[in-house]
Specification:
Blueprint: E1 8-10, E2 16-17, E3 30-32, E4 38-39, E5 52-54, E6 60-61, E7 74-76, E8 82-83, E9 96-98, E10 104-105, E11 118-120, E12 126-127, E13 140-142, E14 148-149, E15 162-164, E16 170-171, E17 184-185, E18 192-193, E19 206-207
Parallel strand pairs: 1-3, 2-4, 3-5, 4-6, 6-8, 7-9, 8-10, 9-11, 10-12, 12-14, 13-15, 14-16, 16-18, 17-19
C-alpha cells in the first residue's frame, strides 16, 4: 500500500491475498499473479497508470477491484466467477473486458467506464445495483442468462441499440433508464419490476 517507487510486481506463487493490497501506487504499470485465486477488498485500486494485468486463475474478488486505474485499455479474467462492489469502477481508458465465467456481481459493476465498447457476460445470472451504469460507448450486449438485477440496471447508456435479456425474471428500480437509442426489448419471463421501468427511452418502439 502506497509504495511510491514500485513500478512492477510479479508474485508467481501467491494464491490468496486479503484487503488493501497495493493501493495507491503512483508508478505501478504492470502486475502478474499467475496463481492468485482470491483477493479481498481494494485490490490494486487507485493506481492510475497500470496498463497490464495477468490474473489467469482469479475466481473471486472483493470490493474496489482495480478501480480508478486510468491507463488500462483491456482486461481478461477467464476464471472469474464472482465480483464484489465497484469492480473496475471509473477506468477512463477501458475499452474491452472479457469475463466468460462470471456468474454473480455486486453493486456498481463497471460503473461509468465511458469508452468501454466490448463486453460480454455469457454466464452472468445475477447482478447488484448500478450494473454498467453510465457507459456511453456500448452498443450491443448479450445477457441471455441473467435472471435478477438490482436498481439502475444499464441506466444512462446513451448509444445502446440492442440487449438480450431473454431469461430476466426480476429487476429493480430505474431499469434501463434513459437509453435513447434502444428501439425494442424482449423480456418474455419478466415477473417483477421496480419503479421507473424503462423510463425516458425516447426511441423505444416495441416491448414484449
Amino acid at each position: 500500500c502506497e509504495n511510491e517507487l514500485l513500478e512492477e510486481i510479479n508474485l508467481p506463487y501467491l494464491e490468496i491475498c486479503k484487503h488493501t493490497f497495493l493501493l495507491n501506487n503512483k508508478y505501478l504499470t504492470s502486475i502478474s499473479f499467475p496463481s492468485l485465486r482470491e483477493c479481498g477488498n481494494s485490490f490494486i485500486g487507485f493506481n492510475e497508470i497500470i496498463n497490464q494485468a495477468n490474473l489467469p486463475v482469479l475466481s473471486e474478488c472483493g470490493n474496489h477491484f482495480l478501480s480508478c486505474n486510468n491507463s488500462m485499455t483491456k482486461l481478461c479474467l477467464p476464471m472469474l466467477k464472482e465480483a464484489g462492489d465497484s469492480f473496475m469502477r471509473l477506468n477512463k481508458s477501458l475499452i474491452q473486458i472479457q469475463v466468460p465465467s462470471l456468474e454473480k456481481c455486486w453493486d456498481d459493476f463497471l460503473f461509468s467506464n465511458k469508452i468501454l465498447n466490448d463486453a460480454s457476460f455469457p454466464r452472468l445470472s445475477r447482478c447488484g445495483d448500478g450494473f454498467l451504469y453510465n457507459n456511453n460507448s456500448l452498443r450491443l450486449l448479450d445477457l441471455s442468462q441473467i435472471s435478477v438485477c438490482g436498481r439502475d440496471f444499464m441506466a444512462l447508456n446513451k448509444i445502446l441499440t440492442e440487449i438480450n435479456l431473454n431469461w430476466l425474471h426480476c429487476c429493480g428500480d430505474n431499469f434501463l433508464l434513459s437509453n435513447n437509442n434502444l428501439k425494442y426489448l424482449i423480456v418474455p419471463w419478466l415477473e417483477k419490476c421496480g419503479d421507473n421501468f424503462m423510463r425516458y427511452n425516447t426511441t423505444l418502439e416495441s416491448l414484449y
